[in-house]
Design goal:
Mean pLDDT: 93
Structural class: alpha/beta
Strand content: 25-35%
Number of strands: 13
Number of helices: 9
Order of helices and strands: EEEHEHEEEEHEHHEHHEEEHH
Strand order of the largest sheet: 5-4-1-8-9-10-11-12-13
Helix content: 25-40%
Length: 304
């Protein structure tokens, strides 16, 4: 594995996924059984890695990342993270390749994912070291960790260790589809003790048990009775901030011409966490997250 350098005071530690993104932008609808013209790029990605890179890009003084990758692309991913200002600790998996996500991006910049988790969710408690928390001011867990047994066990070990040291923990639920498969209650039980939850609208409604299409504010408020600070990302509508059972801020998004929404939520997370580490209140951090997300959708892929 590659090892990060010792963290200084106020570091952000992200535990999550590193994947290879294959982004296909197709201006016209997909046509079954024949060709559809597209612009296709292979890029470094992963929700956890993206968030770490955006945190570094938006001002976090030191960002560390723990993740698992395959042998075939370990050096490429390590170099990309270092170039983005992130100190990676990448566990090299000898059995599975790096996870791969195919992102199909339509004319409206919305995306559909095909996901092969590969090595990403094979993180396990043996990959954890208590020294990773030395000098760390905040721990962020990618929600993808909770969708496989071994990585969920690792996430729980890290969460308990952070709580024992008084290090605050945030979680991004990551995927409404995977949440539905795992079960909302099981997920909420697993993240017990986290102090920040960063869902999108679909994830918030699912976790709160509120029906479509309304109820986002109610979902945020309900979830914040269980996790003290809940920030719901709403795409072009901005973000809602809920604290201890009530909505405390509604933040507008910055208007931009979107090219690819891949990684917009990860950019929000990175910008939000960097601002919080710098002392911003929740509303101010949400505004910083919206600025990062606005920048993210103007380019292909999920990294700055």
């Amino acid at each position: 594995m590659t090892r990060a350098q010792p963290a200084g005071p106020g570091a952000l530690l992200v535990i999550g996924d590193v994947v290879t993104d294959v982004v296909a932008v197709h201006p016209e609808p997909l046509v079954p059984a024949t060709d559809t013209a597209a612009r296709i790029r292979t890029l470094p990605g992963g929700a956890g890695a993206n968030a770490a890179c955006w945190a570094a890009r938006t001002g976090a003084a030191e960002v560390r990342l723990l993740a698992r990758v395959g042998t075939e692309s370990a050096r490429w991913h390590e170099r990309a993270l270092l170039d983005a200002g992130v100190l990676p600790r990448l566990v090299v998996d000898r059995q599975e390749p790096t996870g791969t996500v195919v992102a199909l991006v339509g004319k409206d910049a919305e995306r559909t994912f095909l996901t092969d988790s590969g090595a990403a969710l094979r993180l396990c408690p043996a990959d954890w070291s208590p020294s990773l928390l030395d000098g760390v001011a905040h721990l962020h867990l990618s929600g993808y960790l909770f969708f496989a047994d071994s990585s969920r066990e690792l996430a729980l070990v890290a969460l308990r260790a952070a709580r024992a040291r008084g290090v605050p923990v945030s979680v991004d639920p990551a995927s409404a589809g995977f949440l539905a498969g795992l079960g909302p209650q099981r997920f909420l039980d697993a993240v017990e003790g986290a102090c920040v939850l960063l869902p999108n609208e679909d994830e918030a409604r699912l976790l709160a048990g509120l029906p479509e299409p309304g109820g986002v504010a109610g979902a945020a408020a309900r979830l914040s009775r269980r996790i003290p600070l809940v920030v719901v990302t709403r795409g072009a509508a901005g973000a809602l901030v809920a604290e201890r059972g009530r909505i405390t801020a509604e933040v507008t998004a910055e208007p931009v011409e979107a090219v690819d929404s891949t990684g917009a939520g990860d950019a929000f997370t990175g910008g939000f966490l960097a601002a919080r580490l710098a002392g911003a209140d929740p509303a101010g951090a949400a505004r910083a997250g919206c600025r990062a997300a606005a920048l993210a959708v103007t380019r292909l892929g999920g990294r700055p």
